[in-house]
Amino acid sequence: MALLEAVADIPWIAERYRRVVIASGDHAFTFAVASLRAAGVEVIVIRPDIGFSSALRRAAGPNVVSLGSRPPANVVNLFTHTKDAA
Fold first, then answer.
1. Topology given in CATH for the domain delimited by 2-66
2. Is 30 strand, coil or helix?
3. Domain map (residue ranges) of the chain
4. What number of other Cβ atoms are within 10 A of residue 29's Cβ?
């Protein structure tokens, strides 16, 4: 619920951000994704490999990335890490 509240003010987000990345497969984000796109914000949905809502898929349009795939070049990957083998 806290994440949905964070994206509830669509005009505020649209004034400040050009692109929003949402990592979810939950249909609860469908309205937010559709509203942000309608406001002109590019929305990228990072979806789980299993359990992706068809409503969210339709709302996201072409900007859907599977967790198992590489992120698009226009998405900053904050979670990159390298692990040395012991």
1. Rossmann fold (3.40.50)
2. helix
3. 2-66
4. 23
